[in-house]
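Milestone 3.1: sequence recovery, worked example.
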């Protein structure tokens, strides 16, 4: 386990990459140390070459005395030329390796998170900062520079930033010690000038990460608008309603806010860097004049003077820009580690990635005085709800939007555990069941079901991934949900790729996608089948046929139907009517109609709607005859 639940600090910038790959970490550490030593080595090589060349010119020594210094200079040039090309190739392999090690682990961590963290905006934002390549709640393309950084890149950048600090320290010490041996007081001035530069860079890093946190919120909103304007799913409505121009204007406003935040940080960093740079330049100008005086006094050689001049220019640039940028990045990564600490502390279900338990059975599922409100809200969605689901019977939950019907199914499938009261499976609290048992207990298809861009067969087989004999079952499921004719028209039958991502992919209709989702639930061997508005895209006749077919294959199973079309509720043995978070009526269709209560009113209002529609057509037809 590379990423553990702990408090992460500065030392972890080194420890995490070493846990991922000691080999790559050591290779790059050697490279950075070598890079740091090159400037100091170059000073002595250049000074030696110039001094010996002058002596050769004056006839004081032979030409062979410059060979060693020339060899050193050429060696440094060859190193600088080849090492960067070689390390680019090594870094490419390193990036692939880090991705293979870290991404699966982070995805598994995300899969184990309690569902409430996925829906909570605050923790969702935290997850996006730690794993910016993961889209699970808020859609959209990624336009922020930070948003292009995958988690593994953040981990590696922490390490390279630390190596950058180590490189600068070695480089700085090598230069200052060299200068100290020549003119000691100039070295002390350089050290004193460096202190405020490093301070301002560290301060800028903390402010930059704060701006990034604010900027990422705006960017997420812009990303969503971008997806709405470009997604295939919204093509029809974009053309019908013509809202692109208005959304594009709003999108531009979000980008402008994001840009202003970025420019604010950039401007501040630039001003501080320039001010520091001016101080450094003025200081170094004085030191250069002092070095000229040292040359005239023969305190240092001409070769050392020329070599130091070039090095001083390089050091000036590093202190003006590189140190500020490096200190800023280190501070940003320390803020990232704080986010990583919070991320690892998010509650998770340890066995959440386990596969559904096979051959699960139950006799009774019971809700006893269950109350529930979504995290971060005060409104009770369920308020003291009690009911029983018995094995082998068909149930239907009805009520207006927001009555709590879908919430009940989310509690049954274990998405939320922060409820009051008891949910019992054969007398055992559902909280005490393993995730494998909860997954094996039920199969569900929601109105916003998933559309997998894979073959039709694979779309169904994932409902029972451990069953190797599913092709025949898939054909049976397709027939039961009324997809047989559509599959016959597909060029490759069940092996046809659905969606437009892959080559030769076929895009099927919304109603056909819903049938695919229903066929998937047929493939599952879970004893409880839950259908939450799964037939919204079907016409009433097709919906009725699907429900009647489903009734046939559900014999011996337990089903829960949720539908606003109350005609389907006639198939239920027991109907639970919800209102204001409570069950206000229960019974079969005929019993509830006899009570003449809320269910009867809801049912009659739909019947009246259809009857009015029929009467209108009859009147229109009579008028045409006249």
């Amino acid at each position: 386990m590379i990423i553990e639940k702990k408090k992460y600090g500065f030392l972890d910038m080194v420890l995490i990459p070493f846990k991922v790959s000691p080999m790559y970490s050591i290779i790059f550490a050697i490279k950075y140390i070598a890079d740091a030593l090159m400037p100091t080595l170059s000073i002595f090589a250049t000074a030696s070459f110039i001094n010996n060349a002058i002596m050769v010119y004056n006839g004081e020594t032979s030409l062979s005395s410059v060979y060693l210094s020339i060899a050193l200079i050429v060696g440094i040039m060859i190193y600088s030329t080849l090492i960067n090309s070689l390390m680019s190739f090594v870094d490419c392999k390193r990036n692939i390796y880090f991705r293979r090690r870290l991404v699966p682990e982070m995805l598994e961590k995300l899969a184990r998170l309690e569902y409430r963290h996925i829906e909570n905006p605050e923790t969702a934002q935290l997850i996006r900062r730690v794993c910016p390549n993961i889209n699970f709640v808020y859609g959209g393309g990624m336009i922020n520079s930070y948003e292009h950084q995958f988690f593994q890149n953040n981990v590696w950048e922490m390490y390279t930033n630390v190596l950058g600090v180590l490189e600068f320290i070695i480089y700085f010490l090598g230069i200052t010690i060299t200068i100290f041996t020549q003119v000691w007081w100039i070295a002390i001035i350089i050290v004193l000038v460096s202190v405020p530069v490093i301070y301002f860079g560290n301060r800028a890093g903390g402010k930059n990460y704060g701006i990034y946190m604010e900027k990422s919120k705006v960017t997420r909103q812009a990303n969503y608008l971008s997806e709405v304007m470009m997604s295939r799913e919204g093509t029809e409505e974009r053309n019908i309603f013509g809202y692109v121009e208005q959304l594009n204007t709003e999108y531009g406003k979000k980008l402008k806010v994001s840009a202003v935040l970025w420019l604010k940080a950039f401007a501040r960093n630039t001003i501080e860097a320039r001010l520091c740079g001016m101080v450094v330049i003025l200081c170094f100008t004085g030191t250069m004049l002092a070095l000229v005086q040292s040359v005239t006094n023969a305190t240092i050689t001409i070769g050392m003077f020329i070599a130091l001049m070039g090095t001083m220019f390089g050091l000036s640039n590093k202190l003006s820009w590189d140190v500020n940028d490096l200190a800023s990045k280190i501070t940003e990564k320390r803020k990232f580690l704080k986010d990583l600490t919070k991320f690892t502390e998010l509650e998770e279900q340890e066995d959440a990635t386990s596969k559904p338990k096979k051959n699960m059975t139950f006799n009774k599922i019971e809700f006893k005085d269950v109350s529930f409100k979504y995290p971060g809200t005060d409104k009770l969605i369920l308020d003291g709800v009690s009911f029983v689901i018995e094995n082998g019977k068909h149930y239907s939950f009805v009520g207006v939007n927001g009555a709590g019907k879908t919430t009940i199914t989310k509690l049954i499938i274990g998405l939320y555990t922060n409820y009051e009261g008891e949910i019992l499976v054969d007398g055992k609290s559902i909280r005490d069941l393993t995730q494998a048992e909860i997954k094996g207990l039920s199969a569900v298809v929601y109105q916003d079901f998933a559309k997998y861009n894979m073959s039709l067969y694979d779309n169904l087989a994932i409902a029972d991934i451990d069953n190797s004999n599913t092709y025949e079952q898939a054909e049976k499921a397709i027939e039961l949900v009324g997809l047989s004719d559509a599959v016959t028209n597909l060029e490759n039958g069940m092996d046809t790729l659905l969606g437009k991502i892959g080559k030769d992919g076929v895009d099927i209709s919304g109603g056909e996608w819903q049938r695919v989702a229903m066929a998937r639930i047929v493939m599952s061997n879970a004893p409880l089948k839950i259908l939450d508005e799964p037939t919204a895209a079907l016409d009433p006749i097709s919906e009725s046929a699907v429900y009647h077919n489903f009734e046939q294959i559900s014999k011996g199973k337990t089903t829960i139907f949720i539908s606003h079309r109350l005609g389907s509720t006639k198939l239920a043995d027991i109907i639970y009517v919800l209102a204001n978070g409570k069950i206000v009526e229960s019974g079969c269709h005929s019993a509830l109609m006899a009570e003449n209560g809320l269910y009867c009113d809801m049912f009659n209002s739909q019947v009246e709607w259809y009857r009015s529609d029929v009467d209108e057509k009859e009147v229109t037809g009579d008028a045409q005859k006249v």
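The chain is about 60% helix and 10% strand. The first strand starts at residue 364 and ends at 372.
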